[in-house]
């Protein structure tokens, strides 16, 4: 599972475990279908705590990926019990965008949506561009279990571009689960052999000989999906160039591709591609589960991934005694803290939803202690709510919980989100940046050629934005 974003343009912060959340995976095999039948005592309105709703029925569309759909079915059932007379219909699919797009175009969207996965995200980007999402600011100002709901959300999330896309302080995308991403290793191997974890990229590459001595390559990644390399690249950009470099990167500034930051960050990818035994043979042709299985079987020392990793691969073969260990991302200088990429997934209510009031009530219900715990139990996910990891500790793998302890102990978390390209543009910044990395890794393109290619793409993107009057 690979999903993506968080923080203003991007903000780096050390986040305590008490305010952290994590993400697991639940490979649910159910297909897209309505679920959750109506309460037989349904009447013309529903109430909970005195609230009345004229429209009793709520249509919910959710992405069925690593988190599965069991949580959504379960939370819908709980909501209907607490709000007698309501009926919630759940439609879930890995390709949820294909199912809801015709309804959105026809002006009849679902009342509530959770959309994730790179193939589905353009539909959310389109709704943002068209200003077709409901303003959710009032929800987060309302009291929830004794305090304003906004006070329960992780610091910085609601103020970020990911939640407040227009920079006006208004929330249009509500946070859901929270991921932490970086490099992973076999903890048992490192502990048994007394191998020191690398804190810098020099120390990382120095482990090449150790990798060979232990019958494995230094590194592999999900070759057919080079977007996983974002988990190393984004923290590295901040590590080298700070906020200014990240602003250039996420604001699609062509000059980023002429900068020292670009040369240094993409330089470690070039080194992985060219150093003997650094990149596991065959990596570029592997999908995510194949590369992850090879890593777990002892064919590589490190792989990038997120906090869903252990649950996603719970049934996969592995070398004897294998234990998931999270490293984060090394720095370029001794003494600088380790880093990690973070991501908060999002929930939306379309502006043309037929039942916005019940959709708002359902959204608030997700953030209750019951909703947070149920999400941990059924989806193995951790919501972007303060204290969520401890609330769901019993339901998530120990390695996942330990990731947040590592963050608590000093790993700096960083992330961001690309500005929107012009409406109708042929460019997709994420694809344009990460897909060509395959050509670097198989030595068909040099770093300089790659930089020139991206400089041209970003120049054209800025030209389109200027012509469309949409430049940010």
Furnish the topology, listing elements before pairings:
Layout: E1 57-63, H1 70-82, E2 87-93, H2 96-105, E3 112-114, H3 121-129, H4 137-141, E4 143-144, E5 147-148, E6 174-186, H5 187-193, H6 201-206, H7 208-213, E7 217-219, H8 230-250, H9 260-274, H10 288-296, E8 300-306, H11 309-312, E9 324-328, E10 339-348, H12 356-366, H13 369-379, H14 388-391, H15 398-408, E11 412-414, H16 429-434, H17 437-441, H18 447-467
Parallel strand pairs: 1-2, 1-3, 7-8, 10-11
Antiparallel strand pairs: 3-10, 4-5, 6-8, 6-9, 6-10
Helix pairs in contact: 1-13, 8-9
Task: State the gist of this model.
By secondary structure, the protein is α/β, with parallel strands linked by helices. It has 18 helices and 11 strands.
